[in-house]
Amino acid sequence: MTIDSTGFKITIRGDYLGNKWKRGRKGWAKLDVIVDINEIRALTFSKTDEHVQDSREALNLVNRMRDKISKLYGEKAYDSKSIYNALCGKAIIPLRKNHSTLSRGSPYMARIAREIRRTSESEWKNNNNYGKRWIVEIYFSGLKSVMDEIIKARRSEYIAQEIAM
């Protein structure tokens, strides 16, 4: 399984009309999703806005799917102690460059930090088949080619329904 998020524009108004009538940008609707690597389909998802951090919403998704996850691939945005601890060593998420090799709340993160320091990040990625993380990008590409990048609904509950479809 792999995890990521993508954004959808909430307005259909172009930049020209927005500038002409002095209307501000309405923001983004964000789709956070866990995708099955084999079937390239969403297993669970949530709709948030641009103010919610990826790692915070990812923890909610992980908690929903915890029993079914054997490995979860993600990008560095999901590098958090809470996600590593929730997955008990099943997370294949590269760490930020300044990460400590000491435990400090997450022995799983420390183990990965020591492994990356011992070899290299690219070798760690190769050893853990990190390239499978790109399956979620294939999913988003297909989703946006069918649905477009603009949400046409206005109300929050309808925006959630449109993304769910």
Provide an overview of this structure.
The chain has a single domain, classed as Nucleotidyltransferase, domain 5 (2-Layer Sandwich), CATH 3.30.420. Helices cover 40% and strands 18% of the residues. The chain is built from seven helices and five strands; from the N terminus they run βαββαβαβαααα. Strands 1-2-3 form a three-stranded antiparallel sheet, sandwiched between helices. It has a two-stranded parallel ribbon with strand order 4-5. The protein is elongated and about 55 Å long. The relative contact order is 0.17.
The first-to-last residue Cα distance is 21 Å
Number of strands: 5
Q: What's the overall geometry?
A: elongated
Which H/E pattern describes the elements?
Answer: EHEEHEHEHHHH
Under the CATH scheme, which architecture would be assigned? 2-Layer Sandwich
What is the highest CATH level, the class? Alpha Beta
Radius of gyration: 18 Å
- The average pLDDT score comes to 79
Low-confidence stretches: none
- CATH topology: the name is Nucleotidyltransferase, domain 5
Compute the number of helices.
Answer: 7
Percentage of residues in DSSP E strands: 15-25%
Q: How would a textbook summarize the main sheet?
A: 3 strands, antiparallel
Strands of the largest sheet, in order across it? Answer: 1-2-3
As for the number of domains, it is 1
Helix content: 40-55%
Provide key terms for this protein.
165 residues, two-stranded parallel ribbon, alpha+beta, 3-stranded antiparallel beta sheet, 5 strands, Nucleotidyltransferase, domain 5, 7 helices
